[in-house]
Design brief:
By secondary structure, the chain is mainly α. The chain is built from 16 helices and no strands. The longest helix is centred in the first third of the chain and has 27 residues.
Length: about 350
Amino acid sequence: MVTQAVRHPWQLMYRVYRYVLPSLEREFSKWVQRAEQIPDPELRRQALASMSAKKFHCQGGAVYAAQALGFADRLIPLIVAYQTISDYLDNLCDRSTSQDPVDFRQLHISMQDALTPDAPLRDYYQYRTEKDDGGFLHDLVRACQEQVRSLPSYDRVQQRIIELSTLYSDLQVYKHIAQEKRETALLTWWEEHRSSYPQIYWQEFSAVTGSTIGIFALFCLATKREVDDSEIRALDEAYFPWISGLHILLDYLIDLEEDRLGGDLNFVSYYRSDDEALERLQYFVGQAKASVARLPEPDFHRMIVDGLVAFYLADRKVNKSQPQIYTIARQLLKHASGLTSVFFYLNSLLVRR
């Protein structure tokens, strides 16, 4: 199996189709079959719904394994299991029977335990009525623990990965509490962190924390035999806030109208105008591209940036029937355009269709 660095879009897509996606399908199907065996009907329903609607999260995350094919047999099971936890818990907090922040916090402890090889399993359903998942969540946690233990330099990145995971969990707690409380909670949380990120707004910080791709990038870095602090810091600063922020802001952009109709929280809606939304998204694209230029393997991460823009703006929701989203999206694609973006955009159209 080839292991040299990914430098070209065609090379990345070849690896994705030839090596990554077949392995992902096997792993994902395994967890779907496992979810079908959950005894509690509500937990089973939410697990299967999350996997049906959000499979593309695992597909996108698994692309990182193309950067380190020699470890694909560990990275793909790890990314699929960890992202499955994330999506399942999101459904339990957003679409299930509880609005209790204590319950949300307890559920999300599983995400940090999954990243800690020797952490004991706990009763993650302690504060909710539905409890019997037949060991589904425990099995996901154990699968992650097994794989992170096998990454050569995981001990070098573990602390930052757990910090990112904890921020993600904080967001899930605050954004899913009762509607009249969530904005105040998010603003209070932002005050704890704003001095560290003076270049971004409060809603952008919240968006940044909602991405798991910075964790996946650090998983890949941990496949190297030797990793120094400067590499970890450079990668982290590229993803948090820029690439991760771009990721989730794009996600919220294409859901803007849907969330407005449903009364759901949407961080893009907090911009004062469409012009400001476009300006800030363009700013994130520019900062993301500038930050990856400082990484040891910039080509791969630059393709991640171009791929994010292309993938989200190829979504069916970006059409002339939703002029607000369509106008911003077309201008953003034009801003980020180039042969690489066009290549990924056309590929994304094919995949999404």
